[in-house]
Amino acid sequence: MKHKPFLATLLLAAVAAVSPVRANQPDSVYLFSYNASPAHGLAFAYSADGKTWTSVADGAAFVSSDYGTWGREKKMHRPMLVRTADGTWQLTFMVNDRAPQYAIATSPDLIHWKPQDYPYVESFEAVKKQFDEAEQRLYQTVTVNGREFCGCVNRVAYTQVEAMQAAKDAAAQRGQRNGESLADDVTRFADLKDRPLKATVLIDGTQRKAISDKLIGIFFEDINYSADGGLYAELLQNRDFEYNERDHGGWNATTGWHAARPIEIKTDHPLHANNPHYAVLLGDTLWNEGWDGIVVRQGKKYDFSMFVFAGGQKKDIRIQLVGADGKVLAESTLKTSGSDWKRFSTVLTAKASDTKARLAIIPLKGTRVGVDLVSLFPQETFKGRKNGMRPDLAQILADLNPKFMRFPGGCVAHGDGLGNMYHWKETIGPMQERKPQRNIWGYHQSRGLGYYEFFQFCEDLGCEPLPVVPAAVPCQNSSTGGGGQQGGIPFGPEFEQYKQDLLDLIEWANGDPKTSKWAKMRADAGHPKPFNLKYLGIGNEDLISDVFTERYLPLIKAVKERYPEITVCGTTGPFFEGSDYEQGWRLAKDNHIDMVDEHYYVAPGWYINNQHFYDQYDRSASKVYLGEYASHGPGRKSTIQTALTCAMHICNLERNGDVVAMSSYAPLLAKHGHTQWNPDLIYFDNERVYPTVDYYVQCLCGQSQGNEYLPTAIRMDGPDRANRRLAASTVHDTTTGKTYVKLVNLLPYSVETTLDFAGIDVPAGTMATTTVLAGAWTDEQARPTQPATLALSAQTTLSLPAYSFTVIAF
Ligand code: AHR
Asked: Residues 541, 598, 628, 654: which is the catalytic one?
C-alpha cells in the first residue's frame, strides 16, 4: 500500500487573517478548536483577550469523523487545526487507538469541508508519535463554559466567527422548517378550518417540454431477505452448506438443517472450490426447514435436485415434503450412483397443502453419501423461469410498471471491506461455481439470484437493467478487514483486472457470442441475444475521498472510451447536501459524467419545504438519478404522511424531468421477521405480500408516466404555508396518447379545485378516470379507490379530499 507524506502540514504555522469589521467589534479574535468527546467532532470557542472564551454556536460540531463503521468508529481523537499558507484550513486527527492511519480534512472557511481522507502510514506507533509531537507544539489548555479542553488556538477575523455562527443558525432554521409534520396541522391550519378552500390548477399545453421516459423505476437490493428467502423462489435455506459465523453470529454449515445425530460436514472432496462444504448422509434423515417453513400447495409441482457424491456405489435416497403434523405431502426416490459428484433431480407433486412443511432426505440404501447444492423450486415461478422468481412478489413489482431496475445494491454492491465487494463474475455460471458471499446486512447471499437472473428479470419486467458496480472502494462505513475504504483496490494488476471486469460486464451483456468469450457465456446460459445494456452505475453513495476519486475517474474513463454509448451513472454520496454531495457534483461537472446517483432519506417536512430543489439544477450538467429516497416519519412507518410527501416529490421530479432522468424509492422489499431497515415499499412473508401506502403512490405514479411535461401550476387563495401543501403535475405519453394529471392535497381539509386547460383540446364529453388515495395522516392501511369516471371540460371542477393523492388519466 502506498503511504502518503506524513503529517507534513502539521508543521505549518497558523496565519492570521484580518478583515474590516464593525466599529464596536474586535477586528480579530483567537479561535480555539477542540473536541469535547471523540464522538462529537470539532467545536470552537473564541476570545478577544485569550483568557475569556465563548463557544461558537453553543459548541456545535463543525466537522465530525467519518472513519469506519457506526458505533465503534467515527471518532475524532486529538484534532489539530492549522491554516496553510494559501489560507486553507487543515484538520488532522487520529481515528482510533490502533489503525496505521490518520484523518485529514480541509476547508476554505471552517464551514464547508472537503470529504475526509485516511492515509496509511507505516504503523499506529508512527501515527501516535507524530500526534504526541504535534500536541507538544500546538496544544493549549482553555476553559470553555467552566470545562478545560486541550486544542489549537488560531487567530482569525471576527467575521469568521460571525459567519460560523450564522451558518449554524441557518442550518437550525432549515432543520426546523424541514421538521414540519402533519401532526401539527390542526393548530397550523386552524384558521382555514371553516373556510371553503378553493384552488385552481392551470395546465398549459402550449409549453410542453420533453422529459425522461424512464423517470420511475425500482431499486432491488438484497436487504431484509429480499433475495434468498424472498424474491428468489428457492425454498430451501442454506442449500449449499456455506452458511458460516461471518455471515451471522452463531451460524455454521448446518444452520437450517437438522438430523437425529450431529450432521457431518466435510470439505475434502468439494463440489467446487467456490462451494467447499458438503454434508454426509450417515443413515439418519436430513431435514431442511426452509425459510421458517416451506409453503406447499396441493396439486403443485416442485423441482427437487441435489448433487450427490456416491463414492462409486448405488444408493437410494427418498425425498419427502413433510407437513408440520408429520404427514407426507409429496415424495419421490432418487437412485443415485457414480464415482464423483453428479446432479440428480426429481419432481415432487403435493397431495396436500401446508405452510410449515419441511424437506426430508432419507437415505434408504447405503450410507456415507455426500450431498450438496440441495434445491427445491416451485415450478410456478414468474414467467415460468427455471431458477426464477416468486410469482406474487415479482408480479407486485411488475405492477409498478418500472422503467428500469437498479441492482444489486446499495451497500451490498460496495460491500463491508475489500473482501466483501460485489464482483459480478462471481455470480454467473452454473450454481455450484457461483461464489456465496456474506451479506453486509447480516446474512448470506447464495448468489442463486445472480447477474444473469437480474438481467433476465429486467427483461421479464420490460425494464432497463441498471447494474451498479463498486468504484473499486468498499463502503466508507466498513468494519471488516479494517476501517473505511481500506485504501481501495490496490493499483497495479489488481486494479487493472477490476477495470477489465467492468468492460467484460458490458461485453457479457451486449457482445456477440461468436466473437466474445463473455458473450458466449451469456449465450450458453440461455440468452444468445444481447441484453442491450444501456446504463452502468459506478459507485454507491461513497465517501468522495482521494482514494475513491483516484479509482472512480479512471473506471469511468475506461468505460466511456470503449463503450461511449453506455450511460455511466456516478455517485454524490448519501445526502442531499454536505461534503460528498458537493464534491461528487464537482467531479461530475468537471469530468462530464453522464448522470449521478443522489440519495436521501429525509423527514416528510423536507419534501414539503424543498419542492424547488431541482428547479435550479444546471440543465447543461450531468443528469440526476435519484437512486434512493424515502420519507421517514415517526416510527419509520409507511403512512399517508410519508406516501403523500413522496407523491408531492414525484410531481416536482416530473416538472424537472428534463434534468432528473430516473428515480427509485428505497428499500423495495422486506420479509417480516427478517427486516434490517424500515420503512420498505413492500413487506412479505412466505405466503403473502403486504404493499404499503407508499407502494400505492409508486404504483399510481409508475403507471402514469409520460415523456412530455405540461407546465402545471396549482394555487389556492390562502397563505403560503397552505399553498406549500399542494402540488400538481401533468405529463403526456406521446406513444399511447394518454395524459395524466397528478394532484396532491396535503392539507387536513378538502379543496374544491378547478382544472383549467390551456392549449389542450378537451372536447365536451371527454371522459377521464380518477383514482384517489386518501386517509388520516397516520393511516398505514389506506388504499387507492377503484378508478371512477370524470367528465372533462376546458374547466373541470373536482374536490381533492383532505390528505389525498389524485391521479386523473385521459
Ligand atoms: O437502501 C438501504 C441502504 O441505504 C442502501 O444499501 C445504501 O445505499 C443506503 O445507505
From this structure: 541
CA of 600 from ligand 1 middle (Å) equals: 10
Residue identified by cell 388519466 is: 809
Q: Does the beta carbon of 694 lie inside 6 Å of ligand 1? A: no
Q: How many angstroms does the Cα of residue 666 sit away from the middle of ligand 1?
A: 8
Give average pLDDT by consecutive 10-residue segment, the chain, 810 residues: 46 39 77 96 97 97 96 96 97 97 98 97 97 97 97 97 98 97 96 95 96 98 98 98 98 98 97 98 96 98 97 93 98 95 98 98 89 98 98 98 98 98 98 98 98 98 98 96 95 98 98 98 98 98 98 98 98 97 98 98 98 97 98 97 98 98 98 98 98 98 98 95 97 97 98 94 90 98 97 93 98
The DSSP bridge partners found for residue 409 are none
Q: How many C-beta neighbours within 10 Å does residue 774 have?
A: 20
The reply to whether 561 belongs to the active site is no
Cβ of 677 below 6 Å from ligand 1 = yes
Cβ of 540 closer than 6 Å to ligand 1, yes or no, is yes
For the beta sheet containing 766-774, the strands, ordered from the edge strand earlier in sequence to the opposite edge, are 209-210, 708-710, 726-733, 738-745, 804-809, 766-774, 788-792
- How far, rounded to the nearest angstrom, does the alpha carbon of residue 803 sit from its chain's CA centroid? 28
**What is the pTM for the complete model shown?**
0.95
- The finding on whether 574 has its CB within 6 A of some atom of ligand 1 is yes
Under 8 Å between Cβ of 552 and 471: yes
Helix residue spans in 511-545 (DSSP H) = 517-524
628 touches ligand 1 (CB under 6 Å): yes
State the residue for C-alpha cell 462471481: 426
Decide: helix, strand or coil at residue 544.
Answer: coil
Atom nearest to 666 CA in ligand 1: 1
